[in-house]
Write a structure and sequence with these properties.
By secondary structure, the chain is an alpha/beta fold. It contains 1 helix and 8 strands; from the N terminus they run αββββββββ.
Length: 129
């Protein structure tokens, strides 16, 4: 096999190097104005996991002003809603798998809630003064 080293090979080599440089330069982000997306951190003290038959924890005690996050870990869809008579009513949108809903409790008291699609899935949040 004979390798040619004429102008055609030189043009091909330059084209190949330019293409490689374009691909490599697209892999790095040199803009410093964009900050990375924040990593969501969930705490057992403020997070309720929704399962297929219950929530965990079933009773959560928090201070006033704390935001609670419900995360649907079930393959089914759920809607979390407060029971009648709670100090402040809340209802989540439809939560599909791995979606979350947050509510900030600003009024002290006892909040009972359930899943609108399955009343057996229920819990209590006690908000301290």
């Amino acid at each position: 096999m004979h390798v040619r080293s004429g102008p055609l090979m030189l043009i091909f080599s330059i084209f190949f190097l330019c293409a490689a440089m374009v691909l490599v330069s697209g892999c790095t982000d040199t803009t410093s104005s964009q900050s990375p997306q924040p990593t969501l951190v969930y705490s057992p003290k403020t997070t309720i996991l929704i399962g297929s038959a219950s929530v965990n924890p079933q009773v959560l005690v928090i201070d006033r002003g704390v935001t609670v996050t419900w995360i649907n870990t079930d393959i089914g869809n759920h809607i979390v809603t407060s029971d009648t008579g709670t100090p402040d009513a809340f209802t989540s949108p439809l939560l599909v798998t791995n979606h979350r809903y947050q509510f900030t409790f600003t009024i002290a008291g006892t909040y009972t809630y359930h899943c609108a699609d399955n009343a057996a899935i229920k819990g209590t949040i006690i908000v301290n003064k």
